[in-house]
């Protein structure tokens, strides 16, 4: 494909001739091959423009840069280079990738989920409903990527446009007609999803997270709201919005102004509601009441938050033309979502649940559920830690949330990343101490799991929170294999 064809539709500020042959699109110089178009972008950690030379050494067939200085320098060094200047690198990356891959985003009906918590779970539910209606789909999110059934690892919740469009291309080739994906606030803010036409957009909720990146809740909300305006694409046709959430009300008005058909859901408010809710570990049922009629839903997902996720997914699937019967069948067929209230079998009569709760709201909901399941006679033991190089202000709040409903807190490390684990623990401990709940501090996560399990008696619930499906622990100098469910299973076996 010619450079001029790959950059068609990009509003370049400057451009040279376009007759170079392009064989691929890359935003990371390390992935450049002979003939690749290298999109050099400034970032928060480094600057892709520093790697133009490396890309050229690897045989780049063309360059797009977001820096005028790099544009001028590159041309003086390589006068015959096909190069364009575009201030917004990610927009250029998205359009160039879409051109290169032949616009797979136009061949899939896209359902996109945003919100602080519940995105991954909701995408799994929508996918299950689509499957029950015999529709092939692509799923993209935190845990993994599904390409019409094939499972791949996921490097990011929402990949860069180039990688997303490559996945869409494979999905279309595998016969997919739909895509279901999470749109993280980072991705919306950075416009990783520029030009992707969303058919159905879902908002789950907004509570504190990622203030290290967004700065304020208002800016965090503004990032989420962008999904409902369309990011370089028309606004979504349908907006599915949580009516129980205070930000949901604002979004509802916003989406209506943008011309969307709005479907609301909630435990207490909304058009899609749940009645006769029965909550057990590994089994939830409720009567779905909706403008489309009512039906009994049974799921092996646990807890009230998953009733909400199921309502959101049902409203979205229905607006994709899936019947209530197919919705019920899909929900019934989803066995579990990895690391979301995933129980670890044992013969001690203890409910051990691995859960990805890594915000104060998720912890509050999780512990409230555990409290209900444990009853008056049994204890709730909550193990948690806070991630390093992430929102520091959520740490005492998570501590408070963990202390509030638990009988015992085991405070440990999550992914410390480049931070001192002891300091992270200190910050969270302040919150736990305010609640007066007993707290064991043990920075080594495996030892902490051991201690939490050792104190549990028949009927107790042990919550291993924060890392969910994750298979590694990110430390300052290395990343080690670590899987809460696997560690817990091993420790329980040793104790048997
Ligand atoms: C804060 C954030 O979103 N960071 C992401 C962002 O980084 P950035 O824009 O600052 O870029 P940078 O690392 O400074 O690099 C600048 C440019 O140089 C390029 N480069 C870099 C090195 C090199 O040798 N050659 C080269 O060309 C990079 O590819 C990039 O294009 O773009 C990079 C390239 O895609 C990502 O690797 C990086 O993810 C970092 C590792 C990260 O931790 N991201 C997290 C916070 C994230 O995005 N999370 C959300 C989910 C959150 C949730 O669900 O709760 C997600 O969507 O995954
Ligand atoms: N609807 C919900 N409301 C509040 N908390 C929820 C909801 N759904 C799930 N949770 C909690 O949040 C955790 C993460 O859920 P999930 O992975 O589905 O969310 P996510 O939005 O994809 O998270 P991330 O942004 O980290 O990818 C769960 O383990 C659970 O504790
Ligand atoms: N997607 C979230 C996940 C956090 C999970 C937790 N284990 C942590 O490392 O803080 C993030 O990157 O902030
Ligand atoms: Mg997710």
Q: Cα-atom Rg, whole angstroms? A: 24 Å
**Fraction in beta strands:** 15-25%
User: Which word captures the global form?
Assistant: globular
**Could you tell me how far the N terminus lies from the C terminus, measured between alpha carbons in angstroms?**
63 Å
Strand neighbour order, sheet with most strands: 9-8-7-10-6-11-12-13-14-15-16
Largest sheet: 11 strands, mixed
EC number: 6.3.2.13
Modified residues (N6-carboxylysine): 224
Binding site for UDP-N-acetyl-alpha-D-muramoyl-L-alanyl-D-glutamate: 29, 157-158, 184, 190, 192
Main location: cytoplasm
Describe the structure.
With 496 residues, the protein is an alpha/beta fold. The chain has three domains: 3-100, Udp-n-acetylmuramoylalanyl-d-glutamate--2,6- Diaminopimelate Ligase, Chain: A, domain 1 (3-Layer(aba) Sandwich); 103-333, UDP-N-acetylmuramoyl-L-alanine:D-glutamate ligase (3-Layer(aba) Sandwich); 342-495, Protein-Tyrosine Phosphatase, Chain A. Helix content is 38%, strand content 23%. The protein is built from 17 helices and 24 strands. The strands form four sheets. An eleven-stranded mixed sheet has the order 9-8-7-10-6-11-12-13-14-15-16, with helices on both faces. Helix 15 links the parallel strand 20 (408-411) and strand 21. Helix 5 packs across helix 12. The longest helix has 16 residues, at 304-319. The model has no long low-confidence stretch (mean pLDDT 97). It binds ligand UAG, adenosine-5'-triphosphate (ATP), 2,6-diaminopimelic acid and magnesium ion. The site of adenosine-5'-triphosphate has 23 residues, from helix 5, helix 11 and helix 13. Magnesium ion (MG) binds next to helix 5. Its main location: cytoplasm. UDP-N-acetyl-alpha-D-muramoyl-L-alanyl-D-glutamate binds at residues 29, 157-158, 184, 190, 192. Belongs to the MurCDEF family. MurE subfamily.
């Amino acid at each position: 494909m010619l450079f001029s064809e790959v950059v068609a539709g990009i509003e370049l500020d400057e451009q040279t001739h376009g007759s170079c042959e392009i064989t691929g699109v890359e935003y990371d110089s390390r992935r450049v091959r002979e003939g690749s178009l290298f999109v050099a972008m400034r970032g928060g950690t480094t600057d892709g423009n520093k790697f133009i030379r490396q890309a050229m050494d690897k045989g780049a067939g063309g360059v797009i840069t977001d820096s005028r200085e790099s544009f001028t320098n590159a041309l003086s060094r390589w006068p015959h280079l096909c190069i364009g200047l575009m201030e917004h690198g990610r927009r250029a990356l998205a359009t160039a990738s879409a051109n290169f891959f032949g616009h797979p985003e136009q061949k899939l009906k896209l359902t996109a989920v945003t919100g602080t918590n519940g995105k991954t779970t909701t995408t799994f539910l929508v996918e299950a409903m689509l499957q029950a209606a015999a529709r092939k789909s692509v799923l993209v999110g935190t845990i993994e990527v599904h390409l019409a059934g094939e499972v791949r690892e996921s490097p990011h919740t929402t990949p860069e446009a180039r990688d997303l469009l490559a996945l869409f291309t494979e999905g279309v080739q595998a016969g997919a007609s739909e895509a279901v994906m999470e749109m993280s606030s980072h991705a919306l803010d950075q416009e990783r999803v520029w030009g992707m036409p969303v058919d159905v957009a879902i908002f789950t909720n907004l509570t504190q997270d990622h203030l290290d990146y967004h700065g304020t809740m208002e800016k965090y909300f503004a990032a989420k709201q962008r999904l409902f305006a369309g990011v370089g694409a028309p606004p979504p046709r349908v907006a599915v919005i949580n009516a129980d959430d205070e930000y949901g009300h604002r979004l509802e008005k916003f989406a209506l102004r943008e011309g969307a058909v709005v479907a609301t859901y909630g435990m207490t408010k909304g058009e899609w509601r749940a009645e006769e809710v029965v909550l057990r570990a590994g089994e939830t049922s409720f009567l779905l009441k909706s403008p489309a009629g009512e039906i009994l839903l049974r799921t092996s997902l646990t807890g009230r938050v998953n009733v909400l996720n199921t309502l959101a997914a049902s409203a979205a699937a229905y607006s994709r033309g899936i019947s209530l019967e197919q919705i019920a069948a899909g929900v019934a067929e989803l066995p579990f979502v990895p690391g979301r209230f995933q129980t670890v079998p044992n013969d001690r009569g203890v409910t051990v649940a691995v859960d990805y709760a890594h915000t104060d709201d998720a912890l509050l909901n999780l512990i409230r559920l555990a409290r209900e399941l444990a009853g008056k006679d049994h204890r709730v033991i909550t193990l948690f830690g806070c991630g390093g190089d992430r929102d520091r202000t959520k740490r005492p709040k998570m501590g408070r949330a963990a202390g509030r409903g638990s009988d015992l807190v085991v405070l440990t490390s999550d992914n410390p990343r480049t931070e001192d684990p002891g300091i992270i623990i200190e910050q969270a401990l302040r919150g736990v101490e305010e609640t007066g709940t007993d707290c064991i501090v043990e920075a080594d996560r495996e030892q902490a799991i051991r201690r939490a399990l050792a104190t549990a008696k028949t009927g107790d619930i042990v919550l291993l929170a924060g890392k969910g499906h994750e298979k590694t622990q990110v430390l300052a100098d290395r990343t080690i294999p670590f899987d809460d469910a696997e560690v817990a299973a091993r420790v329980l076996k040793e104790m048997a």
